[in-house]
Amino acid sequence: MKKVCMLVHTHSFLDSRIFHKEAKTLQKNGYEVTMIVPRMKGKLFNIDKEPFQNKFLQKSFRHEGINIVTYNVESFKPTAPMMQKKLKSVSANFNNVLTNIGLNQQADIYHAHETASLYAGIGVKRAMKNKGKEAKLIFDSHDLIPDPFEESQTKNAVTGNLLDTMLKEVDQLITVSPSIKSWYIAKNPLLPIEVIYNSPPLNEEFQPKEYETKSLTVGYEGHIADHKKGSSDKIFKITDLCSATIDFRFKVIGGVLHGHTLSIPDHLQEKVKVTGWIDYQQISEQMKEIDVGWIDFDDLKSSLNRSYALPNKLFSYLNNGVPVVVNKCHEMEHFIRTHKCGMVINKTRATSEDYAEAFLFLHENRDKLKQMSINARKVMERIYSWEKMEKDLLLVYQSLTSNRFNSFYF
């Protein structure tokens, strides 16, 4: 049995991509999977950053078939200059907690999910090679790193140079959209790269939406973060504008992160519903009453990542036959126009008024809305469901364990 070790630095161990999709897929297909995951202030934490107080207290345990080994993240906070210095020294000892625990696993494949965990993985790979054992290293880039629009030029150059150095020791890169893949190809044309979309397994209980009621419910899944995505001000304004002419509801699946609050205006208490953070498996049930999904990636001038993103929520909507309305983001615009599964506002900075106009148009054109819903579900069934993605993931792993690099992706 081949051993896989997931190296995690900032994500929750219950992250949908890392745990629910990748780790479980590998485990059910015959791999022994261990995840090395961070505690914050001694506690493991949920996807909304809320610490678990009364469970997952052991330093190591087994959860749903996956081995979990923990460490305190406060003991591993490497800076970019320090990592670069160690990487350039052939004889440097990567004496940090994540590398040391990873080395104890003696795995066949290490799968890193952030810059710091990739650094730790290179330390493991080098140490094992010095002892005559070869381990393969995957870098799973959930985002574009570095984001050239988001950081100062100096910081961007430091992070970019660091990543360029580390990619030379990576055996396989995985990412989440074609645009991010193209970015990495430009950096390292010979590195094998595969896109594994952040899509869920098909909702087996899906029932086609009929759109026969006279009301409209718009949904938003995920983190409400003003001025970046899911602005609460926009949610309230959209609800006000649409409610003036139709029976309108707004449903948020998720909400604010632990320690933050969301105050809904008194006059919208019956119009805006917030579920709070729910289990991954419950998302489809919560989607049943949603007619249209909303994604707003605002301020694209400060983030190329948002232009290049195909986020989890996009595929959650499509999986449940929910058409999507989004502002003009490069990757999502191409996706939605290609598959005719939603509407793109032709503005990079769409206002509440723009979105309200789109929702009212769809409300009045139920035939278009229903066809978009059919297209949304169909594209998941044909191309993008996790059942399709896990086949690609397993092919990546098979190529690494058999030492075959069959394809370069251009």
Note the topology:
Layout: E1 3-7, H1 16-28, E2 32-39, E3 60-63, E4 66-72, H2 80-88, H3 97-105, E5 109-112, H4 115-130, E6 136-141, H5 153-167, E7 172-175, H6 178-187, E8 193-195, E9 215-223, H7 232-243, E10 247-255, E11 272-274, H8 283-287, E12 292-295, H9 304-308, H10 312-319, E13 324-326, H11 330-339, E14 342-344, H12 352-364, H13 366-384, H14 386-401
Provide tags for this entry.
410 residues, alpha/beta, Rossmann fold, eight-stranded mixed sheet, six-stranded parallel sheet, 39% helix, elongated, disordered C terminus, glycosyltransferase, glycosyltransferase activity, transferase, Glyco_trans_4-like_N
Explained architecture:
- It comes from Salibacterium halotolerans.
- InterPro entries: Glyco_trans_4-like_N, Gtf3_C.
- Keywords: Glycosyltransferase, Transferase.
- By secondary structure, the protein is an alpha/beta fold.
- It has two domains: 210 residues, Rossmann fold (3-Layer(aba) Sandwich), CATH 3.40.50; 169 residues, Glycogen Phosphorylase B (Rossmann fold), CATH 3.40.50.
- The protein contains 14 helices and 14 strands.
- Strands 3-4-2-1-5-6-7-8 form an eight-stranded mixed sheet, sandwiched between helices. A six-stranded parallel sheet has the order 11-10-9-12-13-14, sandwiched between helices.
- Helix 11 links the parallel strand 13 and strand 14.
- Helix 7 crosses helix 12.
